[in-house]
Amino acid sequence: MIVKMLHDKGLKSEHAYAAGFVSIGLSVASWFGSMKVEPLGVARADRWGIFVGEWAPTFFGLGLALAHYEHAEHEETLHSISH
């Protein structure tokens, strides 16, 4: 139901995949930035990198779910046209 709602709001699988790739870049940037700025050093930088890095699989999973929904919707449309 959530995937259908997101699709109806205009979110496409390509958007979720793009967000996944952006989150990978943000993970590296947050790790590097935290390592340079934070006085606590590597431990805090690693936590920031891991925190942001966990977004990528979520976005890629959402992209797969949306792609599956889009494919099923496309097949249903083709089936209704042919009959």
Q: How does this model look, in words?
A:
With 83 residues, this protein is mainly α. The chain has four helices and no strands. The protein has helices spanning 2-8, 13-37, 42-53, 55-82. Helix 2 packs antiparallel against helix 3 and helix 2 packs antiparallel against helix 4 (55-82). It is rod-shaped, with a radius of gyration of 18 Å. The model has no long low-confidence stretch (mean pLDDT 85).
Annotation keywords:
single chain, 83 residues, mainly alpha, 4 helices
Q: What is the overall silhouette? A: rod-shaped
Low-confidence stretches: none
Please estimate the helix content: over 70%
Question: Termini, distance in Å?
Answer: 27 Å
Biggest beta-sheet profile: none
| Continuous helix count | 4
Order of helices and strands: HHHH
pLDDT averaged residue by residue: 85
Tally the beta strands.
Answer: 0
The portion of residues forming beta strands comes to under 5%
Query: Pairing-aware structural class of the strands and helices?
Result: mainly alpha
Which value, in Å, is the CA radius of gyration? 18 Å
